[in-house]
Amino acid sequence: MKKNIPLVLLHAFPLSSAQWLPQKVGLEASGLTVYTPDQRGMGQGGEAPASYTLDQAAQDVAALMDQKGIDKIILGGLSMGGYVALRFAAQYPERLAGLILSNTKTAADTEEGKKAREALAKKVRAEGAKAAVEAFLPKLLGKKTQEEHPEIVGLVRALGESRSKEAVARALEAMAQRPDSAQALSQLTVPCLILVGQEDGITTVADAEMMAKKTQKSTLKILPGVGHLSNLEAPAAWNQEVLSFCQKI
Ligand code: MLT
Question: Which of 164, 165, 163 is nearest to 124 (CA)?
């Protein structure tokens, strides 16, 4: 560790900081200082406002830093957490010492994708968070994890189903409204670690390769036999890549 800059990890949809238990424990044992805030509407994150945006979620990270008196962080986000991390990079590049983009992408939703999210938000408001879990769960975990790790499947299901329906609907709408972040990423001058699961069906290896190509100082790592929630599916490999990245900063 050169400077021991704190690591902030932002969770995926519709999970919470509970997603990061293997990182909070493993990486702190290795000497890193790790914060895993809940985003609004998720875990203990408080309510999301009606017109919640991922730019606001990024502003919440800056507010947390101010509250703790932290000037710079290494920011990591997985999937929706990565979308938020990219919105942070767009608004506060000077507060980043490094960026970790795991299983995520810079592109905004297509028109078709937006319509699908809006339809799902409507369904969730009518039927509850379970509707989103049913729609996402098959895509969130790789084949091997689905077959061999019922405890991970159960954790993801329980976290998703415990969300309020309004919080899930607002997060879906916030993701649908997010802008493209390619420019913010290409302008970034700090080191960037890009992680992806080889079996990720939501944000693919091609998405990760494209980000790596457009980033000035990038390292791309493809995790074999792993799907979208790579930090839960392969915690040891994920932690190893992140630790060696953070130790160089
Ligand atoms: C996530 O894992 O955070 C979501 O699947 C991201 C998305 O739906 O685009």
Answer: 165
Q: Give per-residue pLDDT as tens, 100-140.
A: 999 999 999 999 999 999 999 999 999 999 999 999 998 99
CA of 58 to the centre of ligand 1 (A): 16
Quote the CA–CA distance of 193 and 228 in Å, as a whole number: 16
Decide whether any atom of ligand 1 lies within 6 Å of the 80 Cβ. Answer: yes
Phi-psi region of 79 (alpha: psi -120 to 50; beta: other; left: phi over 0): left
Of the candidates 78, 65, 73, which has an alpha carbon nearest to the alpha carbon of residue 94? 73
Ligand 1 atom closest to Cα of residue 81: 3
Q: What pLDDT score does 149 carry?
A: 93
Q: How far apart are CA 202 and CA 228, in angstroms?
A: 7
CA-to-CA separations, 116 to 38, 52, 105, 123, 152, in angstroms, rounded:
25, 18, 18, 11, 26
The token pair at 22 is: 């293997």
- What tokens does 203 get? 């944000």
Residue 45 tokens read as: 């994150």
Helix/strand/coil percent split, the chain, to 5: 55, 10, 35
73-78/218-223 β-pairing: unpaired
- The reply to whether ligand 1 has any atom less than 6 angstroms from the CB of 202 is yes
Whole-number Å distance, alpha carbon 32 to ligand 1 midpoint, is: 27
Could you say which DSSP state residue 118 is in?
A: H
How much is the pTM?
A: 0.96
Cα gap 56→76, rounded to integer Å? 17
- 141: Cβ below 6 Å to ligand 1? no
Segment holding 65, helix H or strand E: helix 54-68
